[in-house]
Design a protein that fits this description.
Layout lengths: L6 E18 L4 E14 L4 E6 L10 H15 L7 H11 L4 H19 L3 H4 L6 E3 L2 E3 L4 H14 L3 E5 L4 H14 L4 E5 L6 H13 L6 E3 L7 H10 L4 E3 L6 H9 L5 E4 L1 H4 L1 H13 L3 E4 L6 H14 L2 E4 L12 E3 L2 E3 L2 E3 L9 E3 L4
Parallel strand pairs: 5-6, 6-7, 7-8, 8-9, 9-10, 10-11, 11-12
Antiparallel strand pairs: 1-2, 2-3, 4-15, 13-16, 14-15
Helix pairs in contact: 2-3, 5-6, 6-7, 7-8, 9-11
């Protein structure tokens, strides 16, 4: 392997961006993104970019612990051959198995640097199935009137799938979903409880919505991560596909979900497992006859761009949930994909994912 593929430098940059409006789920409320950007430079000058999302308690890491772990890994990775990216990922997983967001950020930057060195767009590295994706758009937990206004605005902007955050109160959640349906009568609806409900509460909400003649296209992580019984009950009884998100963080989880028929769809988020294990989860899901969804935490176009290339390259993702850059008040990223409403057109003329942080100073 050419000496040009050796890791020369790893840098860590703050990635702090306010949201347009507070983003409330059953687990947390976020007003400002406080992520970290990671860049890896190779000896041939190629520079790749990744992102570490910080969203406690959903991520184990806070910004301080993530920065410390990244600094430790930077010292260990200097001089390593980027072409050994799978081996490097396995070694990092052994050292910091509990810090999945840090591992994901490093793996993103490493693979991005390598493909930039090769002069290859990232989606081609992953298989080249597609060169664009169409995302949904998320409406957080908010008053029904605000949700209806957002739905009408998103309809005008061309979004055909709306993801609705639920999990706080059945009555308020039902009111919000009905308001969204009034604002966008034709949209495909995803309900995402972020593990905030029990199986019985979920079924009660679905009964209310059916009385209002509202059918849901996908039910995402309605119950707690370890509530395998509740997840399986809903997979059998909800009358719609159930997506496992928090319940699928590893290939072992994916095997269990497929073998025990605990869901119909797996939501792959690079931040939950890293890139290498995400590839394994996708393969297990396909072999098990499960549908694929790609999602993320609240991230900028660095991580969302990488995830878009991942899903487009592999192909076969029926559910695309990469909308969070559209919810930010500013875009700190230059280059990368072009967003045309819900459609992300990947940069087919640039190597890697094409995006990079506008570093100040």
């Amino acid at each position: 392997m050419s000496k040009g593929f050796l890791i020369q430098k790893i840098e860590i940059h703050p990635l702090e961006v306010p949201l347009i409006a507070p983003f409330t789920t059953s687990a947390s409320t976020l007003e400002v993104v406080n992520n970290l950007a990671v860049s890896i430079e190779l000896t041939d000058g190629a520079r790749g970019w990744g992102e570490v999302p910080i969203l406690p308690p959903i991520t184990v890491e806070d910004q301080a612990s993530a920065r410390a772990a990244l600094a430790d890994e930077a010292g260990l990775l200097a001089g390593r051959n980027a072409g050994e990216w799978r081996r490097i990922a396995a070694e990092i997983r052994e050292r910091i198995p509990h810090l999945a967001a840090v591992r994901a950020g490093i793996e993103m930057a490493l693979i991005d640097a390598l493909t930039r060195s090769w002069g290859a767009p990232l989606f081609r590295f992953f298989g080249g199935c597609e060169d664009q994706v169409v995302t949904d758009i998320t409406i957080p937990i908010c008053p029904a009137a605000a949700a209806q206004d957002l739905a009408a605005r998103y309809r005008q902007a061309g979004f055909t799938t709306i993801k609705v955050k639920i999990g706080g109160d059945i009555g308020l959640d039902s009111e919000r979903v009905r308001a969204i349906r009034r604002g966008h009568p034709e949209c495909r609806l995803i309900l995402d409880a972020n593990a905030g409900y029990t199986a019985e509460q979920t079924l009660a909400l679905l009964r209310e919505l059916r009385l209002a003649t509202i059918e849901v296209a996908l039910l995402e992580q309605p119950v707690a991560r370890e509530d395998w019984e509740g997840l399986g009950k809903l997979a059998r009884e909800a009358g719609m596909p159930v997506a496992a998100d928090e319940s699928c963080r590893s290939p072992a989880d994916a095997i269990r979900i497929g073998a025990q028929k605990l869901a119909q769809v797996i939501n792959i988020k690079l931040v939950k497992s890293g890139v290498v294990q995400a590839l394994e989860i996708a393969a297990i899901a396909r072999a098990s006859g499960l549908g694929l969804m790609i999602g993320g935490m609240v991230e900028t176009r660095l991580a969302m761009g990488f995830s878009a290339h991942f899903a487009a390259g592999l192909g076969g993702f029926d559910w695309i949930d990469l909308d969070t850059p559209l919810l930010l008040a500013a875009d700190p990223i230059a280059g990368g994909y072009c967003a045309e409403g819900a459609r992300y057109r990947l940069d087919t003329n640039s190597a890697g994912h094409g995006g990079y942080l506008r570093v100040r100073g």
